[in-house]
Amino acid sequence: MTAPPDDCLARNAWICGKYLSTRRGILTDAVLQHLELTGLSVLIALVVAVPLAVLARRLRAAAGPVLALTTVLYTIPSLAMFSLLLPLYGLSASLVVAGLVLYSLTLLVRNILAGLRAVPEETRQAARGMGYGPLRLLLTVELPLALPSAMAGLRIATVSAVSLVTIGAIVGHGGLGNLIYTGMNTYFKAQVLTASVLCVVIAVAADLLLLGVQRLLTPWQRA
């Protein structure tokens, strides 16, 4: 008599291929939402961080307040941050994005500012001597030389955002965090492990991708 096929879902096993095959659509949607929330929040944070870092570099009086503000934002616990933003955004994906933007600002502003400060003054003087105005100097000299430090901050901010997106599950917009949260509540082992592993994969893949972009944009560092 042939034994019945093993059903890892019925056994509630941690590793279960049947879970992957039967929940493919759910996993795909969760991954796409996770990527969307991460990418959008980091992009917005980068757009905000560059002007703030430039302002802090050009005006010494602004450096202290800018760094202090972003540091204070970073110290706020994630649940408290979402609670503070709740009256503004409600239980929406915008709430998660806004929280992640505020968290990413500290990492991005500090690293971009460090890169700008590391540009040799002799290089700036030489560019000015060649007729470079402030905007041209910033775009063609300072920002390119600040890229290594800026990209390092971008990598850290992106990996951090991948992790923090999962907390958005408390408002129903956490990407893979939704699966982790519901899986933990129901003790669905395969769902918890699969979603957690996918989070790690996304973080590692994003870091490697940005590292590759950094090497392409800074060929002089490989020399």
From TrEMBL:
Its membrane topology: Multi-pass membrane protein
SUPFAM superfamilies the record matches: MetI-like
InterPro entries, A to Z: ABC_transp_perm/SBD, MetI-like, MetI-like_sf
Annotated TM spans: 37-55, 67-89, 95-116, 162-181, 193-213
Organism of derivation: Streptomyces triticagri
Pfam families, A to Z: BPD_transp_1
Protein name: ABC transporter permease
GO BP of this protein: glycine betaine transport; transmembrane transport
Cellular compartments annotated: Cell membrane; Membrane
GO cellular component: plasma membrane
Domain ABC transmembrane type-1: 31-210
Family the UniProt entry places it in: Belongs to the binding-protein-dependent transport system permease family.
PROSITE patterns linked to this entry: ABC_TM1
Record's keyword terms, sorted: Membrane, Transmembrane, Transmembrane helix, Transport
